[in-house]
């Protein structure tokens, strides 16, 4: 009985012991920190209390039968816990079930979280060794992160809303090992805004180098998952993409990205002439109306058509889809004239993936991108700025389409 009393956690001295240990230079966390041994004492005291209650409630004869050591991984380090046993073998503590080897937040969850912020398997191994005293291998960590594969597939196939006022489409490229070689793969991303003004990543798909044929399958998947209509889609000038969108959503307005068009227009212009060309282009895309923009476009053709015919021809050939945003008030224009929203998302992907030169497989790539988008999308909880005004204008123009169930 005296031995059992010694095992009881001394709550009165908990604070005193912690302060004394900190004064002596010990850290709070980590395998040699202050909290690990205190957590051990608290757990053992709790299990002793559970054993007392277990023995008291039993009608059949039963008694204590020593203790059994158990290694436990915790957020404060790895500890050895002595679990009390009974003669009948019927006792199982609720606070620490027999087969549980981690406490609090799952270590697997921590591994997945660390992988999701861009840490390599080697770095995670070192981190776990330092913080928890746990030795593991990159192969084991890969197995742990594979547990999100079912989540990835469920996320890719989840139902979507029936209407999205705005959708931005673009692809980002990565190197992936395949059939003994390394290939460049495109990750097709679709970012939408729902009728409440909340951003939502509608999908990510790994395919071959970006092309309209694969985009068609991606857009068709939106329809299969419940999307009935897209009001305005903003895209870059990929050949065939506009037709792919309209083949699935025939009433969708397509706006080509003005920023992409300007980049493509100036890339072959010598540095000395670039300011003049940029000024001529600015007169087009900042014009207050389509009519005035077309006057500026005519001047571009007159002044630069002879020297840069391909540049001018690109504006003329794509003018209808480049100029769609002139139809709308400023609140809508500034949302659709560029694909910057999806490019901003891509920049967040790159921050995490910049150290990954080559991925071992398509699914290895998707695992990481899925975890990154989970972290990013947690911030998408409030409507876009000025959404009430924007949506009111959309309702005036597209009421029948926006109100469909």
Condensed summary:
With 405 residues, the protein is α/β, with parallel strands linked by helices. The chain contains 18 helices and seven strands.
Please explain how this structure is put together.
This protein is of the alpha/beta class and 405 residues long. It has 3 domains: 103 residues, no CATH class; 51 residues; 243 residues. 49% of the residues lie in helices and 17% in strands. The chain is built from 18 helices and 7 strands. The strands form 2 sheets. A 5-stranded mixed beta sheet has the order 5-4-3-6-7, sandwiched between helices. It has a two-stranded antiparallel ribbon with strand order 1-2. Strand 1 and strand 2 form a beta hairpin. It is elongated and about 100 Å long.
């Amino acid at each position: 009985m005296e031995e059992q009393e010694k095992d009881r956690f001394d709550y009165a001295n908990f604070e005193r012991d912690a302060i004394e240990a900190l004064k002596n230079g010990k850290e709070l966390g980590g395998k040699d920190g202050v909290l690990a041994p205190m957590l051990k004492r608290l757990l053992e005291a709790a299990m002793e209390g559970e054993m007392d209650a277990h023995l008291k409630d039993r009608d059949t004869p039963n008694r204590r039968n020593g203790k059994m050591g158990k290694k436990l991984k915790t957020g404060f380090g790895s500890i050895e816990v002595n679990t009390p046993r009974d003669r009948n073998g019927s006792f199982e503590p609720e606070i620490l079930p027999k087969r549980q080897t981690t406490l609090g937040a799952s270590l697997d969850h921590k591994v997945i979280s660390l992988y999701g912020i861009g840490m390599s398997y080697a770095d995670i191994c070192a981190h776990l060794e330092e913080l928890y005293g746990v030795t593991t291998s990159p192969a084991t960590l890969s197995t742990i992160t594979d547990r999100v594969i079912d989540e990835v597939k469920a996320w890719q196939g989840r139902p979507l809303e029936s209407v999205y006022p705005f959708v931005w489409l673009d692809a980002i490229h990565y190197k992936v090992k395949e059939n003994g070689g390394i290939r460049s793969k495109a990750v097709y991303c679709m970012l939408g805004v729902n009728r409440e003004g909340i951003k939502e990543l509608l999908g990510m798909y790994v395919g071959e180098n970006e092309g309209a044929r694969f985009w068609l399958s991606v857009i068709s998947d939106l329809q299969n998952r419940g999307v009935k209509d897209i009001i305005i889609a903003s895209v870059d000038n990929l050949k065939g993409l506009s037709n792919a969108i309209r083949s699935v959503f025939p009433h969708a307005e397509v706006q080509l990205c003005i920023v992409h068009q300007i980049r493509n227009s100036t890339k072959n212009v010598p540095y000395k002439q670039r300011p003049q060309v940029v000024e001529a282009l600015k007169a087009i895309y900042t014009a207050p109306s389509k009519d005035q923009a077309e006057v500026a476009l005519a001047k571009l053709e007159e002044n630069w058509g002879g020297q840069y015919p391909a540049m001018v021809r690109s504006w003329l050939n794509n003018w209808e889809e480049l100029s769609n945003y002139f139809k709308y008030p400023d609140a809508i224009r500034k949302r659709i004239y560029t694909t910057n929203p999806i490019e901003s998302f891509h920049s967040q992907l790159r921050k995490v993936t910049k150290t990954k030169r080559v991925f071992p497989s398509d699914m290895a790539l998707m695992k990481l991108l899925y975890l990154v988008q989970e972290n990013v999308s947690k911030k998408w909880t409030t409507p876009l700025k000025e959404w009430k005004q924007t949506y009111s204008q959309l309702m005036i123009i597209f009421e029948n389409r926006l109100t469909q169930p």
